[in-house]
Amino acid sequence: MSSQSSALFTDQYELTMLSAALADGSANRRCCFEVFARHLPDGRRYGVVAGTSRLVSALSNFHFGDAEIEVVSRFLDAATIGWLRDFRFSGDIDGYREGDFYFPGSPILSVRGTFAECVLLETLSLSILNHDSAIASAAARMVSAADGRPMVEMGARRTHEESAVAAARAAYLAGFASTSNLEAVRRYGVPGAGTAAHAFTLLHTTDRTNEAAAFRGQVAALGVGTTLLVDTYDITNGVKTAVEVAGPELGAVRIDSGDLGVLARQVRNQLDDLGATATKIVVSGDLDEYAIAALRSDPVDVYGVGTSVVVGSGAPTAGMVYKLVEVDGIPVEKRSSNKASRGGSKRAVRLSRDTGTLVEEVVYPAHAGAPHPAGLEARELMVPLVRGGVATLDTPTLEESRSYLAAGLVSLPWEGLRLSHGEPAIPVRFADSGSWRVR
Amino acid sequence: MSSQSSALFTDQYELTMLSAALADGSANRRCCFEVFARHLPDGRRYGVVAGTSRLVSALSNFHFGDAEIEVVSRFLDAATIGWLRDFRFSGDIDGYREGDFYFPGSPILSVRGTFAECVLLETLSLSILNHDSAIASAAARMVSAADGRPMVEMGARRTHEESAVAAARAAYLAGFASTSNLEAVRRYGVPGAGTAAHAFTLLHTTDRTNEAAAFRGQVAALGVGTTLLVDTYDITNGVKTAVEVAGPELGAVRIDSGDLGVLARQVRNQLDDLGATATKIVVSGDLDEYAIAALRSDPVDVYGVGTSVVVGSGAPTAGMVYKLVEVDGIPVEKRSSNKASRGGSKRAVRLSRDTGTLVEEVVYPAHAGAPHPAGLEARELMVPLVRGGVATLDTPTLEESRSYLAAGLVSLPWEGLRLSHGEPAIPVRFADSGSWRVR
Question: Is A3 part of a structural domain of the chain?
Fold first, then answer.
């Protein structure tokens, strides 16, 4: 995206609503919009907030230049077009930290300003938060399942080329060790990683007897610390040839197909017998959190994860919505069936025992004081992100958000880390009444 | 993406394989890589090729400038870096037309040139084709289910902001009438559409009794042809108020929640009783191809489709792979379990009866003549896309590809249009042997 305007990552109806509001004088009413999810996908126990700093960055490029004005001029009146030419968001935004959890009803983002300036940010906010949070939420489960073993994100080829970059960032935030995606390395400083391609072996084996030539070429260029791909033909032969070529100092072998648990045990034994006791085993091939967990007792050193992480492992979007909750200080709420929202600007605290274990999240009216029950620690969940249209100075780095989540995962009640379907890890309680629907 | 380099939408291992191939002299071997899908997702009957022209466009920006060189210099040797500085793809690409069908094993793309230049295009090619084809494939099923009623794509908020633009394009290609996404309007000329937002009603109803004020504001600004959103509170009251404010010439009402079939019938009766017989009914809210089909007998005029289309309705990626199939004229193929590929550069024809109904697809060796059984029409499926690194001049427009698919859908055997799980609509046969796996 860089310095390209982000203003057209917007649905047309936001502009037509703006036009109507400017015409009837309601455009300058002070509003609060909130982002929240009505439920977690698929019986998940927690969600992970991601994308916040991408959103703050995109917001700074949200302006209508000539190219953007040309498009909206096709359906907007002159007054609205003139208003848009001068537009810069000048309101305030608070939100959950990147790398924090969210649960059904958590007020993940609070956008405050005039109706006109807030209504325009709906699509951009949701696109970024829904995508990045979906990936981070799936990735965090995989990281838990891997139980300390490093994971490489390698799913770029399975998703849109720009989604891939954001997905690599979100997976790293969630605890992945590295990515194969070079644009994510460049743009976000995610550590890069690469192994070997079947194509390289095939390139050297047109007579089908010379896998060794490929391994020799790779080791000569990349050193014995490289990872050789041993499953192009027969894995046992592949491992034998790999150690013959590279010696027992070979960095790693990669297995990308077959029954990965069985093959990992077999290859580990073979490597050990060949004296390559420090050679690592990298496995890949349709791994998701369940497959990763199933390999926990097998001698796997590194997981390569592709498709499942970049498509959110069954939940490619986080399902967050952006709703008007307050106008001129008065709470408003929709009453549509199954889509009710709760009026009023809100804040939230998360309560924990002195052991650090989370107990519940309490959402309370922004005008009220934060609840702080005796005997529990209470942590405010919303931090200032934008003031008067300008990003606050203390945006955390990606590394800081990554550490924040890693520390947070330790605080979940143990059942919150289960992969099976169930209730959210902690309940969300609304401090002032019980009428809010949370799933 | 515009003129930004696309070279880092690439996995690191493609560069390390390039480095090894340059070092051992294999980099200049003449290669053919092919893109194909081993199976269609989820019992689908056909896939729709999309993204081809985005790929050709991205290819023209695939070069390593200073920013890209800086990143790859961290892990590559000087010789490879020097080679990359001069790199431009100079090979040939053939592929299926955008808007054509594909089936398991269809050689959707054929990339030919040196190993060095072809290996670098794997991730970019797959990212674009896997994403865009997943969306177009899901969207085409929805278009069939809608049975001629127009559909608006409005899913931008549920996916990455750039995926959203490509998804709007793919949905339009597949037969959607329009999109809410303004960047897709700007970049690809997709017709734009917008209705009304709950936030606009809420903005005017802080006393909860004044839905009419919102409708008046909208009609004053946008005319009686606008679409009013009637489900913020009570739908019957909403419809009554809408017609009172706009008169019987009101363009449309939108229902975004509840049992859409029941509500559509009820609202149609109410509108007719109020004399608003030409007022249309737009429905939206978690619609997928099955929900759309279920509304076929109800008085719905327009479908608004969001989440399900932009995430591929259960299949967010098309699962296509990019495989080396030929080196210096010699077929090569991987033998990994369940991931076998079929060696040799290929082409394909699709056979049909003189009624136009498709019979089968035949994939044949590129060096052989096209099969043409007596009594059947045979159409070549691969067209030249790139020659000597340069896009061919006759790239179809988005409108042409859209018409191409619309015509193609008429040629499927009737069971090919079924939404239920099953076999591909037509079989893919390999002309020279039976050893290829096509599940």
Answer: no
Instruction: Specify whether A302 is located in the same domain as A158.
Output: yes
d(CA B38, CA A259): 19
Give chain B's domain count.
2
Q: Tell me, what CATH number does B152's domain have?
A: 3.20.20.70
CATH code for position A39: 3.20.140.10
Task: Clarify whether residues B124 and B150 are in a common domain.
Answer: no
First vs last Cα of chain A: how many Å apart? Answer: 35
Q: Is residue A89 part of a domain?
A: yes
Q: At what angle do helices A161-173 and A122-146 cross, to 10 degrees?
A: 50
Nearest to A395 by CA among A381, A385, A382: A385
B281, B267 Cβ separation under 8 angstroms: yes
Q: What is the DSSP letter of A311?
A: T
| A130 with B14: Cβ contact below 8 A | no
Q: Is A85 on the interface with B (CB under 8 A)?
A: no
In 3-state terms, what secondary structure has residue A61?
Answer: coil
Backbone angles phi and psi of B110, in degrees to 5 = -125, 115
Count, in order, helices (H) and strands (E) of chain A: 15, 19
What's the pLDDT at A439?
A: 30
H-type alpha helices, B151-280: 161-173, 182-188, 198-203, 211-222, 235-246, 260-273
Q: Residue A2 falls within a domain, yes or no?
A: no
The DSSP line for B112-178 is: EEEHHHHHTTHHHHHHHHHHHHHHHHHHHHHHHHHTT--EEE--GGGS-HHHHHHHHHHHHHTT--E
- Mean of pLDDT over chain B: 94
Question: Cα angle vertex B157, ends B46, A418, to 5°?
Answer: 80
Chain A residues with beta carbon closer than 8 angstroms to that of B8: 181-183, 185-186
Question: What pLDDT, in 10s, does the model give residues B125-179?
Answer: 999 999 999 999 999 999 999 999 999 999 999 999 999 999 999 999 999 999 9
A252–chain B Cβ distance below 8 A for any pair: no
Domain range for A27 is 12-135+315-430
Element (H, E) at B425: none
Residues A206 and A262 in one domain: yes
- B65 contacts B5 by C-beta, under 8 angstroms: yes
B309 interfacial to chain A (CB closer than 8 Å): no
Tokens 């006759």 sit at which residue?
Answer: B394
Last residue of a domain, one of A310, A335, A353: A310
Is B425 inside a domain boundary? no
First to last CA, chain B: 36
Alpha-carbon gap, residue B226 to A333, rounded angstroms: 23
Tens digits of residue pLDDT in A335-392: 765 565 689 999 999 999 999 999 999 999 999 988 888 999 999 999 999 999 999 9
Dihedral over Cα of A202, A205, A209, A214: its sign: negative
**Cα–Cα nearest to B294, from B174, B175, B419:** B419
CB contact under 8 A, A199 and B256: no
Provide Rg for chain A, Cα atoms. Answer: 25
Q: CA B159 → CA A126, A319, B272, distances in Å?
A: 8, 10, 38
Length of chain B: 439
C-alpha separations of A8 from A70, A163, B161, B339 in Å: 11, 17, 10, 42
Q: What is the ipTM of this complex?
A: 0.95
Counted residue by residue, chain A has a size of: 439
- Among A288, A310, A332, the domain-final residue is A310
Counting as low any pLDDT under 50, the low residues of chain B are 1-2, 433-439
Closest CB to B20: pick one of A58, A222, A312.
Answer: A222
